[in-house]
Design a protein that fits this description.
153 residues; mainly beta; 1 helix; 14% helix; 62% strand
């Protein structure tokens, strides 16, 4: 009987710890409309370099939750040589509560990875990363992006 009590207690404790761990990790999807303000330098006939600020609004795909109805600000550098592009930078994302998530990013001009580097409020102590993908919306500096963050707290 004593062994049965120990087994039941062990199973219950394991179940509880697994649920606590799962509550502190997960993922969320969000999308952002950006406007680019920066400088582009024509290096040669086949190469451009640039840097600037992307500003916009971000929405959680569920209509609520992490980063819903918040501002997005990213500082970026990029290089395109013979049609092959590379982008690097840092972003500050916020939500309606004013809490912020900070990421660095890298990739091509249109897809890559966000890596969490810090946060405030509900994002404090969060770690993780996730993919992003963007597309241009014309020649006026506007784009839209889709992001996923896989996180642990």
């Amino acid at each position: 009987m004593k062994n049965l009590k120990v087994l039941v207690l062990t199973l219950f404790t394991s179940f509880l710890l697994v649920n606590i761990a799962l509550a502190n990790s997960g993922s969320f999807n969000f999308h952002t409309g950006f406007f680019f303000n920066g400088d582009v330098l024509q290096i040669s006939e086949n190469q451009v370099m640039g840097a600037g600020k992307f500003s916009g609004v971000t929405f959680n795909d569920k209509g609520s939750g992490y980063l819903h109805n918040g501002e997005a600000h990213c500082l970026a550098t990029f290089n395109v040589n013979n049609g092959v592009g590379e982008a690097k930078g840092w972003c500050s994302w916020s939500d309606n509560d004013g809490d912020r998530l900070f990421t660095s990013f890298n990739g091509s001009l249109y897809e890559g990875e966000n890596i969490i580097i810090g946060g405030t409020g509900k994002y404090s102590g969060m770690t993780g990363s996730g993919p992003w993908a963007c597309e241009d919306l014309g020649n006026n500096g506007s784009s839209r992006c889709w992001q996923t963050i896989n996180y642990n707290k």
